């Protein structure tokens, strides 16, 4: 924890012993910001799947899921996709109770996605989006959850580098100043299922490092290593941290909606 905190502090600067002046570190959002490991079936690319039932991760409380569902709905609706509430799956249990006790018991044993598939035709749904994981994960879990910078002493700026170059600079005696920044990664997995035949149309794996979508950061340091100016404090500014989390959510679900809506075009 102490190492993580030290890496995130912005009181960082270094100038050559023979010179003064300032060194500037600039970190801007990346494009596209997400890392996409999804696989799309040719069936999705050749079909029209515009009416989607979204099923929450197993064990997720309905109320908690509905509060977060709005982020998905906005992205989907903006791209012409229709979202059908997963609450409709409760009809399987209710209809079972109107028939007999054994039917009701059987309905209760069904998973959420099984209930959704049973009712999909009644709701005119084309597919079911089953969410497997939707969570914030510590940046250290991912090789791309952190961004790395090494000072260029002559140019008085920090260059963004990969982890290998960062670690190499870290080992140099009297080497350049190095610094890295990281926050949680928004990780999402799921699959899109055809309601007609149960075929898996797509397997989604999308991850959005918060550091990739955070507001641009610029910090200038004087010759004594003191901060001359900064757009904000990366480690302490909670308002901008929340803005980065919101941006990560938007990037994730925009990408997911695009994968589904563009596949058939």
Q: Keywords, please?
A:
13 strands; alpha+beta; 3-stranded antiparallel sheet; 28% strand; 7-stranded mixed sheet; 265 residues; elongated
Overall structural class, as computed from helix and strand content, comes to alpha+beta
Instruction: Give the total of beta strands.
Output: 13
Number of separate helices:
9
The mean pLDDT is: 79
pLDDT < 50 stretches: 1-19, 89-99, 103-107
Q: How big is the Rg?
A: 24 Å
Query: Main β-sheet, in a few words?
Result: 7 strands, mixed
Strand content: 25-35%
| Net shape | elongated
Number of domains: 1
Order of H and E elements: HEEEHEHEHHHEEEHEEEHEEH
Secondary structure blueprint with pairings:
Elements: H1 2-8, E1 23-27, E2 35-36, E3 39-40, H2 42-46, E4 51-55, H3 62-78, E5 82-84, H4 90-99, H5 101-109, H6 112-119, E6 127-137, E7 146-152, E8 157-161, H7 163-170, E9 178-182, E10 185-194, E11 200-209, H8 210-213, E12 217-221, E13 227-230, H9 238-263
Parallel strand pairs: 4-5, 4-6
Antiparallel strand pairs: 1-12, 2-11, 3-11, 6-10, 7-8, 7-9, 10-11, 12-13
Helix pairs in contact: 3-9, 4-5
TL;DR of this structure?
The chain is α+β, with helices and mostly antiparallel strands and 265 residues long. It contains 9 helices and 13 strands. Strands 2, 3, 4, 5, 6, 10 and 11 form a 7-stranded mixed β-sheet that branches. The chain has a 3-stranded antiparallel β-sheet with strand order 1-12-13, with no helix packed on it.
Model description:
The protein has 265 residues and is of the alpha+beta class. It has one domain. 35% of the residues lie in helices and 28% in strands. The protein is built from nine helices and 13 strands. Strands 2, 3, 4, 5, 6, 10 and 11 form a seven-stranded mixed β-sheet that branches. α3 packs across α9 and α4 (90-99) packs antiparallel against α5 (101-109). It is elongated, with a radius of gyration of 24 Å.
């Amino acid at each position: 924890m102490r190492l993580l905190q030290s890496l995130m502090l912005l009181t960082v600067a270094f100038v050559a012993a023979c010179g003064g002046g300032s060194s500037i570190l600039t970190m801007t959002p990346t494009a596209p910001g997400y890392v996409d490991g999804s696989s799309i079936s040719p069936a999705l690319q050749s079909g029209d799947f515009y009416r989607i039932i979204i099923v929450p991760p197993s064990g997720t409380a309905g109320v908690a899921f509905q509060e977060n569902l709005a982020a998905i709905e906005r992205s989907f609706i903006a791209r012409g996709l229709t979202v059908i509430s997963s609450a409709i799956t409760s009809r399987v249990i209710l209809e079972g109770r109107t028939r007999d006790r054994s039917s009701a018991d059987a309905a209760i044993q069904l998973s959420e996605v099984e209930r959704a598939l049973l009712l999909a035709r009644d709701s005119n749904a084309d597919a079911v989006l089953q969410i497997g994981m939707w969570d914030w994960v510590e940046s250290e879990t991912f090789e791309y959850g952190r961004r790395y910078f090494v000072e260029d002493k002559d140019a008085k700026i920090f260059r963004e580098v990969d982890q290998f170059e960062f670690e190499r600079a870290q080992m140099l005696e009297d080497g350049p100043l190095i610094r890295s920044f990281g926050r949680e990664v928004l990780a999402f997995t799921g699959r899109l299922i055809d309601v007609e035949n149960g075929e898996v149309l797509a397997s989604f794996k999308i991850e959005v490092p918060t550091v990739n979508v955070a507001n641009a950061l610029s910090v200038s340091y004087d010759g004594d290593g003191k901060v001359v100016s900064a757009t904000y404090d990366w480690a302490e500014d909670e308002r901008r941290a929340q803005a980065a989390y919101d941006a990560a959510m938007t990037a994730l679900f925009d990408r997911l909606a695009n994968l589904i809506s563009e596949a058939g075009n």
